[in-house]
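Page header: ASSEMBLY MODEL / four components / 1532 residues total.
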Amino acid sequence: MRWEGIFKGTDARLQIKRNLYLRRMPGNSFGTYFRITTFGESHGPAIGVVIDGCPPGISLTEALIDEALARRRPGQSRITTQRKEPDTCEFLSGVMEGKSTGTPLAILIRNSDQRSKDYDHLADTYRPSHADFTYQEKYGIRDHRGGGRSSARETAARVAAGAVAMAVLKTEGIHVQAYVSAVGDIVLDASYQDLDLSRTDENIIRCPDQETAERMISLVNAVRKEGDTIGGVITCVASGVPSGLGEPVFDKLHADLGKAMLSINAAKGFEIGSGFHGAGMRGSTHNDIFENRDGKIVTRTNHSGGIQGGISNGMDIYFRTAFKPVATILRPQETVNSAGQKVSVEGKGRHDPCVLPRAVPIVEAMTAMVLADHLLLQRINRK
Amino acid sequence: MRWEGIFKGTDARLQIKRNLYLRRMPGNSFGTYFRITTFGESHGPAIGVVIDGCPPGISLTEALIDEALARRRPGQSRITTQRKEPDTCEFLSGVMEGKSTGTPLAILIRNSDQRSKDYDHLADTYRPSHADFTYQEKYGIRDHRGGGRSSARETAARVAAGAVAMAVLKTEGIHVQAYVSAVGDIVLDASYQDLDLSRTDENIIRCPDQETAERMISLVNAVRKEGDTIGGVITCVASGVPSGLGEPVFDKLHADLGKAMLSINAAKGFEIGSGFHGAGMRGSTHNDIFENRDGKIVTRTNHSGGIQGGISNGMDIYFRTAFKPVATILRPQETVNSAGQKVSVEGKGRHDPCVLPRAVPIVEAMTAMVLADHLLLQRINRK
Amino acid sequence: MRWEGIFKGTDARLQIKRNLYLRRMPGNSFGTYFRITTFGESHGPAIGVVIDGCPPGISLTEALIDEALARRRPGQSRITTQRKEPDTCEFLSGVMEGKSTGTPLAILIRNSDQRSKDYDHLADTYRPSHADFTYQEKYGIRDHRGGGRSSARETAARVAAGAVAMAVLKTEGIHVQAYVSAVGDIVLDASYQDLDLSRTDENIIRCPDQETAERMISLVNAVRKEGDTIGGVITCVASGVPSGLGEPVFDKLHADLGKAMLSINAAKGFEIGSGFHGAGMRGSTHNDIFENRDGKIVTRTNHSGGIQGGISNGMDIYFRTAFKPVATILRPQETVNSAGQKVSVEGKGRHDPCVLPRAVPIVEAMTAMVLADHLLLQRINRK
Amino acid sequence: MRWEGIFKGTDARLQIKRNLYLRRMPGNSFGTYFRITTFGESHGPAIGVVIDGCPPGISLTEALIDEALARRRPGQSRITTQRKEPDTCEFLSGVMEGKSTGTPLAILIRNSDQRSKDYDHLADTYRPSHADFTYQEKYGIRDHRGGGRSSARETAARVAAGAVAMAVLKTEGIHVQAYVSAVGDIVLDASYQDLDLSRTDENIIRCPDQETAERMISLVNAVRKEGDTIGGVITCVASGVPSGLGEPVFDKLHADLGKAMLSINAAKGFEIGSGFHGAGMRGSTHNDIFENRDGKIVTRTNHSGGIQGGISNGMDIYFRTAFKPVATILRPQETVNSAGQKVSVEGKGRHDPCVLPRAVPIVEAMTAMVLADHLLLQRINRK
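Prediction written out in full:
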């Protein structure tokens, strides 16, 4: 048995172990037509994803997925966690001679480098703003060795599936690009249209403006040295999206994008187009005037963020997602243990001082999956 | 034929009529365990909703639903549209002697007062920031007589279903309350905890601070006189929610709340707890310290907004939803028609200068349905 | 309150009433892309159905639905129950000027002629082979006034939705036709190909062979006079189905047809093509040899029943559904009451001696919905 | 690339290869609450299954799954195909220290022994009663190297998931047992109650009556020597099922069982309880009289097969599934190729003369999954 010996100690602990997880944990699927199901714990043998409904004929290689995974990987720079997860994937099914076949596409990512010991001192403690307490409340016990399914490691499976969705979108000329637009109080004060998004990956914070990027990196470094963490905002732009995607009632395109973003660990807010700023505006200035530009109907401004009435209008789709600071800080904090006693907790091990740069590929992946899903839905709606 | 004669005119118009709606329009269901399906067009005979999965034994009367509908109803005050929709509902099934039976609960709301003529001049014009253009792109034609399924009238069915969900929540001691916290640049600068939310309905803007409410009402009146519209923000608080609701991966409780809010017409942003503000904070100040308060584990602050790791922690859940200004303004605006020609359009008829007060019950209804859904899901997860 | 006064009597009865239905009763939807949700109790104000996903542009009138309902209606002949349900429907949404619009199509059928008194003597008795006992076990109480959702009346909503599905199929040249092929031990000994199915409705038992029909009718009459009931078999043929419908793994076309048939009240068996008879055959005689008939590839025999590997092959689809005899007989039977005491029960009121003729349109309706669902699914699968 | 070189030959063949699978192939999930998604092609690297919604605390080992797989495995006896698939599984997630954790449970089964050459001569030929033609019609091409997803190999993933479902049922005292009750015209003429089902696996045909088993085995051997195949019937009994499982409208327990059975390769018919035989009976003899047996309400007979009104009544559930003879015979048969030309085809390689003994564990697995699904659903329905 692989995990044997992880739990050791008192009878009380064994008792907890025996009752491990008293509830089912369903809800591991996302999407309807491009439907993914992820599986795997951070400290089990592997994680992975099955995509049901992938269109056939899409060019796909394991190298393409690995490349996407590398952008999410821990240890990729000095401002991310130094944990090593040299993720490489294996296609188990659904791809033949470099093309998707249309059958379920299963991708396997083996785990490695699981230092459970780093977490051992936390077994009975509720770390502030972690899922420890809510897991205990919901499941009767939490998996303190890295979070189990609440671990950010689960997002690697999303990134793998997102790379497939991205390949689907590419065949339709759709391009998705995210970048860090704020870290703490350093806000990139420019529209995405004035930025060269192709330069996003030229720095380790993934901000396309190099000067702002430097300031952000300095801030993250300073925060890291203090054992602290910091939040920020990621902006995402989808261009080339055809008009007509999205359903007019509940499954509005931006509602599905919002759910996708808010399902990412640490996300606390989502706004599309003018967002919260638009709430302060008047209709006469907020309305996007239609124009005929060389035979194509476009809008002069794009406060709508490319979606009107829940349906894409052919303009760029752009939105922002807010991420809170990582909860694990390398400083002592007050808290209580499972017995309700006051204790102090201090993060150990290898943690991200700022989740933003590694969250960029996750934002892109979730965006790509929502768009792929609506693209397929749109096909069935044809009379 | 009920709707006969609505379309009259040129052959081109008849041609459009013949091809009316070239696509299916699925996606009229929301929720999984407390699952609603809404139906009806604003200018058809009726709208309504079927709830599949309502728990039995819930006290319900048509009067209770009508009361909820009255808060959403047009014409309820001088700052809303003067359209009259004296909505009263009829239970078609699922309720017997004042109690839900557990069977599908169907609620019917007949339409009335449909002044299609008010919209006739718009048949070929793309109103700025309306769904006209995207409907035309998606469906080949739009229903210009009030928006069809994109009409805000669809939300009456949501409010009816929400009133049922609210009755379910009441049996578990859960209370949902929303209020207007910003109109344009007038922002209610107070935490929900410092407000007496029971006084929200004492004024027509639905802001619990009477002084701020007066200023908001004045602003809406001024905007209305200019033929303009204005956006704002609604804050919603759910108290009494037990810990443990929400799934840890995709179906995080706040992700489902976010989708629910963003599916409401005119919503452009959503944030929970510290939201976008939290993105600027450090972990050491953002983390919610756990405390033992008389045997109950609570958090000292509540930046998490009552949800950690996607799961409720027993603290109040609160979030904010941004609404853009209503797109229909009673002023001339540039735009193009379906032939791509430059034209001017000017709103006529009876429209809301500010959607906020009528959106309050819709926010509450959607919140109640998400919570009812997760309550039921939680039951099945028990071992 | 509409249903007031139905329950009267002892305190024990009131107690039961108060706990009426202790469980939810979800699962009122059928289909995925052509998705129906039915609602309504036999003794409530109305029943109905919402179709989500109906293709637009389908010619539909209320008269068309009423015509379909008339074939299922009680009281249509001397060999069916003499209960009167003069069902006429009302389109609440989704149809405009005689065409479906693609939006949710809601159909309302008001109830009438509910003689609850006919059932009053049964309140505490478990009628043999009825759902009384299982309802009591599952829900804590049963609706003894006609069965509630287990009532055959629910199938009227299916027939209404089926008429819409049939109209969809008609646009693709698909034709569905069912007929009674056995009543008791009178079995119509002929292949569907040797029958003139257009003559099915020429007699009240709905058997296309008039001579056999006469014998069946005589048998039903004899059985009726004895206060007894009798079962039988319905054969259904779908012609014009294009090749390619059905999914190869779980959602095989005949698996979905099987579930659809078995969901009809009193159905106990389903077989497609050679069915149980084929289980006794050898591969060399059972295999359907492919032939090129004037450029079209067909099979010489059709033991497969038009479906191979779960996917339609362009040949006629045909299958048989077995119906048990109606459980209500007008004779005394032993049973127990809810206290477990031995009692005698005797059917009163107006019941069908043989459900077969009225089940024919239900079989057709369920078949049409499965085919419409797979037609729509097939569209999305296109690359 | 693993599969490289499999396709070789003419340009026409390469052209086909390039267009391989022109359609998506969704629908690889089964169940709602105990939900499985299977993946993998017979000639790819692996097959497997992800179970979403498995209850926690269930005792599970890889050995338990392997034991179940061994009963389905080819080459297990002289009357099954001699293909070798020494299936052993690996838990990728969801199990810790021998217990399910409630998280997604992923099971991997590596492929081996893929003799694609055995199929090479079939590339352009439509084998009679195979899925070749329907795949070509639906997907534009078929995977002739063993059937791809239509391969019976997919059922190994079902058996693995079924073993997990079986372990869930065991904790509730539910026992599922299937056996071969007919092969060709040899029909086991005994009720399941008069058989010792524990002796089913004592012979290679899996018939609990040893004398009948010998005759069945002789028949299969004779058929095999003639290069022919033969069909049969499997009876399945579920005992210990609590009353109350099943939904009264569409998701009747026997309707879901029927779909499950009919989704198994080669299944052509399903009947529960009295089934087709019951269609010839009268109500007065078919009705199951309720009795009070030592305080427990039972039925004297069980024509209902343990399900009344779609809901289990606590009696044994039993049903029969008809399987057609395997389509691949080792004799020349007429057919056409993809160009519509008359050709002869003759099965080569290693095939089953009779699928029945290996289908027994598949029937049990699908039954267990339906029951596990309804058990979980039942929990959420509680008020």
